[in-house]
């Protein structure tokens, strides 16, 4: 007989050794319970540790979220303040620019008026000078045609000049 033939399932309860089986089962249950208890406790500790870590991360994340919300509100308030300040500053700058433009326009108008008045005075002086020269030339021609001596000529010229001075036609 071969060894392989000795192995197999025997369905007869009386032929099998119930005592041996119960002892083997008892030993398995007793030692298996300790091993399984250790494994289950190890899993329990691992799960508890992971739960505690997850809870700590959740609390940290919640705190970070609160801080981020506070920072967001502060940033939002600062942005509003900056926006308001920029509006006020832009209005002030706009007013200042308008005032500067008005001042520049007034200054330009005053300068233009001064230049025009100066040019008018210059033109009047030039015309008076030309009229004086023409009158002098005409007088000289008349005197030459009348053949007056130099003394009489000086006397007539002096009289005419003093007459013109009294009327304020000649400007000095």
UniProtKB/TrEMBL annotation:
Location(s), subcellular: Membrane; Plastid, Chloroplast thylakoid membrane
Transmembrane segments: 18-40
Coiled-coil region list: 51-85
UniProt GO molecular function: proton-transporting ATP synthase activity, rotational mechanism
A single cellular component GO annotation: chloroplast thylakoid membrane
Keyword Nuclease: no
UniProt keyword Plastid present: yes
Topological category with respect to the lipid bilayer: Single-pass membrane protein
Organism domain of life: Eukaryota
Keyword vocabulary terms for this entry: ATP synthesis, CF(0), Chloroplast, Coiled coil, Hydrogen ion transport, Ion transport, Membrane, Plastid, Thylakoid, Transmembrane, Transmembrane helix, Transport
HAMAP family: ATP_synth_b_bprime
Similarity remark: Belongs to the ATPase B chain family.
Identification of the protein by name: ATP synthase subunit b, chloroplastic
Species this protein is from: Trachelomonas grandis
């Amino acid at each position: 007989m071969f060894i392989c033939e000795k192995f197999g399932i025997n369905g007869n309860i009386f032929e099998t050794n119930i005592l041996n089986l119960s002892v083997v089962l008892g030993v398995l249950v007793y030692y298996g319970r300790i091993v399984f208890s250790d494994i289950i406790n190890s899993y329990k500790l691992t799960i508890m540790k992971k739960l505690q870590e997850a809870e700590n991360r959740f609390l940290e994340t919640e705190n970070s979220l609160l801080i981020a919300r506070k920072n967001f509100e502060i940033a939002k308030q600062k942005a509003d303040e900056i926006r308001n300040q920029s509006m006020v500053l832009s209005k002030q700058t706009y007013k200042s620019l308008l005032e500067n433009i008005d001042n520049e326009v007034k200054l330009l108008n005053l300068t233009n008026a001064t230049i025009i008045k100066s040019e008018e005075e210059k033109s009047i002086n030039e015309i008076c000078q030309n009229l004086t020269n023409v009158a002098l030339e005409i007088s000289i021609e008349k005197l030459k045609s009348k053949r007056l001596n130099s003394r009489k000529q000086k006397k007539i010229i002096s009289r005419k000049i003093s007459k013109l001075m009294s009327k304020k036609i000649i400007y000095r």
